[in-house]
Design a protein that fits this description.
The complex is a heterodimer of chains A (about 150) and B (about 230). Chain A has 2 helices and 10 strands; from the N terminus they run ββββββββββαα. With about 150 residues, chain A is mostly beta strands. Chain A has a single domain, classed as Immunoglobulin-like. In chain A, the strands form 3 sheets. In chain A, strands 1-2-3-9 form a 4-stranded antiparallel sheet, with no helix packed on it. Chain A has a 4-stranded antiparallel sheet with strand order 7-8-4-10, with no helix packed on it. In chain A, a hairpin with a 2-residue loop joins strand 2 and strand 3. Chain A is flat, with a radius of gyration of 18 Å. Chain B has about 230 residues and is an alpha/beta fold. Chain B has an 8-stranded mixed sheet with strand order 3-4-2-5-1-6-7-8, sandwiched between helices. Classes of the chains: A mainly beta (about 150), B alpha/beta (about 230).
Chain lengths: ~150, ~230
C-alpha cells in the first residue's frame, strides 16, 4: 500500500499491440507554449478505436500543474477500480508533475486523429501541497465488496 | 469535527466503540459499513438512500435512544447503488447541521474506508490486543496518513493491558492508547444498542471511553490552534 497516492501513472498498456494492428502510428514531439513541460505522443488505431498515449516530462526543478485538452472527442478516459481516472474531466486532463519527473497520459476515442491529439492549455508552478480528492482516493484503492459469507447469512 | 472510528480488522468492537464515543461527544454516529451495517436503525431513510440521492442526509439522522444515528441499509442492492463520491458532501452536511460526527468505518482497507478516512479530521483506531489486530490497525494508520488524516487516539478494546504493553503499542501506532476492559455491561448495552454510560455511567469502560472522548476533543483543538 506504500505510496499508492504518489507517482500515479495513467494506465494504457501498449505492449499488447502488434505491428499488424497498427494502422496509424507516429511519434511527435511538441514543446508546450511555456517550454516548461515536454510531451511526446504516440497514436495507435485498431478496430475503429484510436489509442493516444503520451509521456509528459517536467524538466523543471519545481512541481508543475499541467492542463491538456484533447483535440478529438469524445474522449474515453481510462478507469482505475471502476472510477474514471481523476485527472480527466471530459476532454480535459489536469495533473501535477513533481520536479524532474515523467507521467503517462492516455485515452481512447472512436474518432480518427488528424492533428496533435493533445494540446497544452496551461502549465504553471504548482503549490507545495497536493490536495487529495475523493475521486483520487476511490481510484487508488480496490473496490469494497461484502465478505463471501454475507450472502448465505441473510 | 468528523471522527472516523476504524481499525482494519473486523470484530474488534469498532461499532460498539463508535456508538459509545458518539454518545460521549454528543455526535451523530454514521454507520459507514455499507454492506454489513451494524448500528441500530429506525424506519426512515438510511445512508443507502442518501448516497443514491433518494434522501436528504439531515432527514436520515434519527434518534436511537439518546444517540443520534445516521443508519445504513441492510441490502446488498442498496450497497451497490451507493455512490461513494458523495460521501464527503454527506458528512459535511451532517457536520454543518449537528456539529460533531463519528463514523463507524467498515473493516478492511478498500475504497469505502479510504473515502471515509479522507473525509475525517482525525481517526480513532480500535484494536484488540493481538498481533494480528495491531498489524491491521497499523495498516489503517498508514492509509489514514496517505489520505492526510492524523490518528487522534487508540482504543485497546477488551483489554486490561499494563503500562509497558500500552507503551509498546503507543510506540508502534503513534498515539495515546486507552484500554477499555471487557465487561458484562458492555455486552449487555451492545445487545440493546445503547451506550454504556446510559446503563452504568460510573463503570470503568464508561470512564475510559470518556477519556478517549477528551483526548479526541483536545486533538481537534490542537489542530485548530496549529492551523492559525
Amino acid at each position: 500500500m506504500n505510496g499508492v497516492f504518489s507517482g500515479q501513472k495513467s494506465s494504457y498498456r501498449r505492449d499488447t499491440v502488434t505491428t499488424a494492428d497498427r494502422v496509424l502510428e507516429f511519434i511527435c514531439r511538441n514543446e508546450t507554449n511555456s517550454g516548461m513541460v515536454d510531451i511526446s505522443t504516440r497514436i495507435d488505431r485498431r478496430d475503429g478505436v484510436t489509442f493516444v498515449s503520451a509521456t509528459v516530462t517536467n524538466d523543471r526543478t519545481t512541481p508543475q500543474l499541467v492542463r491538456f485538452q484533447s483535440t478529438i472527442e469524445p474522449v474515453w478516459p481510462p478507469r482505475r477500480n471502476g472510477v474514471v481516472a481523476p485527472e480527466w474531466d471530459g476532454p480535459r486532463w489536469e495533473g501535477r508533475l513533481e520536479p524532474e519527473s515523467k507521467r503517462g497520459v492516455g485515452f481512447a476515442s472512436p474518432e480518427t486523429v488528424i492533428d496533435e491529439p493533445l494540446e497544452s492549455v496551461e502549465s504553471r508552478r504548482a503549490d507545495g501541497r497536493t490536495e487529495l480528492k475523493t475521486r483520487e482516493v476511490l481510484s487508488s484503492l480496490s473496490r469494497s465488496k461484502p465478505p463471501k459469507g454475507v450472502l448465505s447469512r441473510r | 469535527m468528523i471522527v472516523a472510528v476504524s481499525g482494519g480488522k473486523g470484530g474488534v468492537g469498532k461499532s460498539t466503540m463508535a456508538l459509545n464515543l458518539g454518545a460521549e461527544l454528543d455526535a451523530v454516529v454514521v454507520d459507514g459499513d455499507l454492506a454489513m451495517a451494524d448500528l441500530p436503525r429506525g424506519r426512515g431513510p438510511d445512508l443507502h438512500d442518501v448516497l443514491a440521492e433518494r434522501a436528504d442526509p439531515i432527514e436520515a439522522v434519527t434518534a436511537v435512544g439518546t444517540v443520534q444515528v445516521l443508519p445504513c441499509g441492510r441490502s446488498l442492492a442498496g450497497a451497490r447503488a451507493a455512490d461513494l463520491t458523495r460521501f464527503e458532501d454527506v458528512l459535511d452536511a451532517v457536520e454543518r447541521e449537528f456539529g460533531r460526527v463519528v463514523i463507524d468505518c467498515p473493516a478492511g482497507l478498500a475504497s469505502d474506508v479510504g473515502v471515509q478516512l479522507h473525509a475525517s479530521d482525525l481517526v480513532v483506531l480500535v484494536t484488540a490486543d493481538t498481533d494480528e489486530a495491531i498489524a491491521d490497525a497499523l495498516r489503517t494508520k498508514q492509509l489514514a496518513l496517505e489520505v492526510g488524516t492524523p490518528v487522534g487516539a487508540i482504543i485497546l478494546n477488551r483489554s486490561d493491558a499494563r503500562t509497558e504493553r500500552k507503551t509498546a503499542i503507543e510506540r508502534a501506532l503513534g498515539a495515546t492508547v486507552t484500554a477499555v476492559p471487557s465487561s458484562e455491561v458492555v455486552h449487555e448495552t451492545r445487545a440493546q444498542g445503547v451506550p454504556v454510560r446510559e446503563a452504568e455511567p460510573d463503570c470503568l469502560p464508561a470512564t475510559r471511553i470518556e477519556r478517549v472522548a477528551k483526548t479526541v476533543s483536545r486533538c481537534k483543538e490542537d489542530q485548530h490552534s496549529s492551523s492559525w
